Amino acid sequence: MAYGDTWTTNKQITDTLGDSKYPAIAVDGLNIYVIWEDYTPAEEIYFKKSGDGGATWAANKRLTNTLDDSRYPAIAVDGPNIYVVWQNFITVPMNFEIYFKKGVLD
User: Is pTM, for the whole model, over 0.85?
Assistant: First the structure.
């Protein structure tokens, strides 16, 4: 048997009124961390964690709350630290900037 021959069934982990897109994932043992852009009600960055290998998931956590659009998230984990970056569109002076946020995992 080759690696990648066996897969679990699909599991939907978002169920929002708007579009969920551009996911990114980080894994540390059985802990799985997912971040994505969600258009509910505007383009913001959301986070979700599973501590049991993806069998169950915590509630969505909104990480951004801006007047402009937050897009294209990326995530990394190092020990108890989680690092997130994303692109934010700034209306004035009409350009894109990169933002960073650090969290501590429970």
Answer: yes
Q: Note whether residue 38 is domain-resident.
A: yes
Domain count, the chain: 1
CB 70 within 8 A of CB 64: yes
Establish if 15 belongs to a structural domain.
no
Would you say residue 1 lies in a domain?
Answer: no
Ordered strands of the 81-90 beta sheet: 70-78, 81-90, 95-104
69: how many CB neighbours lie within 10 A of its CB?
18
Please check the confidence at residue 3 and state whether its pLDDT lies above 90: no
Closest to 32 in 3D by CA, of 13, 11, 54 = 54
8 found inside a domain? no
Q: What stretch of H or E contains 21? A: strand 20-28
CB 50 within 8 A of CB 29: no
